[in-house]
TrEMBL record:
GO terms for molecular function: arylsulfatase activity; metal ion binding. It comes from the Bacteria. PROSITE patterns: SULFATASE_1, SULFATASE_2. This is Sulfatase N-terminal domain-containing protein. SUPFAM superfamilies: Alkaline phosphatase-like. Residues 7-352 form the Sulfatase N-terminal domain. Signal peptide: none annotated. Belongs to the sulfatase family. It comes from Pseudalgibacter alginicilyticus. PANTHER family: ARYLSULFATASE FAMILY MEMBER, ENDO-4-O-SULFATASE. Keywords: Calcium, Hydrolase, Metal-binding.
Length: 483
């Protein structure tokens, strides 16, 4: 068994799942394995992703750097041939841990750009509909193995984005020959079915842990799941298992994957010094039919305003559970203000190995909080919505620099009614549901928070250290809300 300062690390990252989707948080779909993590670990009640959509939030998790500092000003990657968002020389949590002696693996959804090689001037042939046909699948791609992972098995992007093909390390496992739709049409291998993905990722994860258990070398497993994002396709075993429909069934199957990981750790007696983290890339999506779920008594985003894509809390306040029995007291909670950018800095402090000055520039280690849940040492967090709108949170105060949601809920980005104030100030300590805009009553707080956000932009970082460069010019007031 490894020493406490070199624990095995597993980060499970669900897709489009809200804080109310766990049965421990009053969800109506039974999630016994997530409940187990809560009961045996620490629940972070004020944890956030850096963005309310997935490509940017995944970037920030792995690099400890806010997504809006990159070339991706808004939205997510939708083109299967998009160049990798993580720069070749950029430090990730995987490359950092690999350098420290860890074996590293990514199993699941990447969605940060796969560097596919394409066939010049390719035109789809008869029967070849949608995207993904112009890729030369016989050649290696730029995959997570270029970002510090020793092993990769997974898919390019979301489960509803072609091509529908598994990739192992740098190569497609098979050549697409048919068009399939999940629901977007695109190139697919004959044997790829969306309904199989969770089981395939669980099987690969179990096999990976089985193999690493034979070795004293610590390991890092990053397990970004494809669920409960669309297509909402629970496998036959889980269909009809919940009382709230297919979405609930899919949550239960997602929980089952967590259970397979925990069961494998149990089998190899690896629990005591394995750090397991579960979180999600943003809040629940309206594609889950949130109104219908609420009518059945299930509140996927709890009592928060908004949902996936929004600057409101429902967009980016997410489940965040940490189990590490040798360090974390079971059944504890913390209200520490936390961002998923903090992950790489936490790994750095656990190992006692500092990051270089250009890495993890927006991360603050939560290791002290794991040892003492009352420690809340984070000053502020910057939030970002799908259309590129900013918000900044400091203490109980949150300032959104946009007149509406910055996303898909009312007032919708680009369609906000005239006459709304250009900014929204909320006191979350008294108004977690963000009902009362206090910008007119507290102009001094508006100014304070704008100045703090601007300082983070100008410094290229939000933590102490040498100033760094952003990858683009950033205007916190003038993101194009029409995009």
């Amino acid at each position: 068994m490894q020493a406490q300062d070199t624990p095995n690390i597993i980060f499970i990252f669900a897709d489009d799942m809200g804080i109310g989707d766990i049965s421990n948080n009053y969800g109506k779909a039974h999630t016994p394995h997530l409940d187990r993590l809560v009961n045996e670990g620490m629940q972070f009640t004020d944890a956030h992703t850096s963005s309310s959509v997935c490509t940017p939030s995944r970037y920030s998790l792995l690099t400890g750097r806010y997504n809006w500092r990159t070339r991706l000003a808004n939205h997510v990657f939708g083109n299967p041939t998009e160049a990798p968002l993580i720069k070749k020389e950029e430090v990730t949590v995987a490359s950092f841990l690999k350098e420290a002696g860890y074996h590293t693996a990514c199993i699941g959804k990447w969605h940060l750009g796969i560097g596919w090689q394409t066939i010049a001037d390719y035109k789809n042939k008869e029967g070849q509909e949608g995207k993904g046909w112009n890729i030369d699948y016989s050649k290696p791609a730029i995959t997570p193995t270029s970002n510090g992972f020793d092993y990769f098995f997974g898919i390019t992007a979301s489960l509803d984005m072609p091509p529908y093909v598994y990739i192992e390390n740098e190569y497609a496992t098979n050549i697409p020959i048919v068009t399939k739709a999940f629901p977007r049409k695109g190139a697919a291998t004959a044997d790829f079915e969306a309904i199989d993905c969770l089981r395939d990722f669980a099987k690969k994860s179990v096999a990976y842990i089985d193999e690493r258990a034979k070795n004293d070398k610590p390991f890092f497993l990053y397990l970004p799941l494809t669920s409960p994002h669309t297509p909402i396709v629970p496998s036959k075993k889980w269909q009809g298992k919940s009382s709230i429909g297919k979405y609930g069934d899919f949550i239960m199957e997602t929980d089952w994957v967590v259970g397979e990981v925990l069961k494998t750790l149990d089998k190899h007696d690896l629990n005591e010094n394995t750090l397991v983290i579960f979180s999600t890339d943003n809040g629940c999506s309206p594609a889950a039919k949130i109104t219908d779920l609420i009518e059945k008594g299930h509140y996927p985003n709890g009592n928060l305003r908004g949902h996936k894509a929004d600057i409101y809390e429902g967009g980016h306040r997410v489940p965040f559970i940490v189990r590490w029995p040798s360090v974390v007291k079971a059944g504890t909670k913390t209200d520490r203000l936390t961002c998923t950018t903090d992950f790489i800095s936490t790994c750095s402090e656990i190992l006692g190995t500092p990051l270089d000055d250009a890495s993890g520039v927006d991360g603050i280690s939560f290791l002290p909080t794991l040892k003492n849940p009352s420690i809340n040492d984070r000053e502020a967090i910057v939030h970002h919505s799908i259309n590129g709108s900013f918000a900044i949170r400091k203490g109980g105060w949150k300032l959104a620099i946009c007149p509406g949601s910055g996303g898909w809920s009312y007032p919708r980005a680009g369609k906000t009614p005239s006459g709304l104030p250009p900014v929204q100030l909320f006191n979350l300590s008294k108004d977690l549901e963000e009902k009362h805009n206090l910008q007119a009553e507290h102009p001094e707080k508006v100014k304070e928070l704008i100045n703090l956000l601007q300082s983070y932009v100008d410094a290229g970082r939000s933590t102490p250290g040498m100033p760094q460069q952003n990858d683009r010019e950033i205007n916190i007031y003038a993101e194009d809300i029409a995009k």
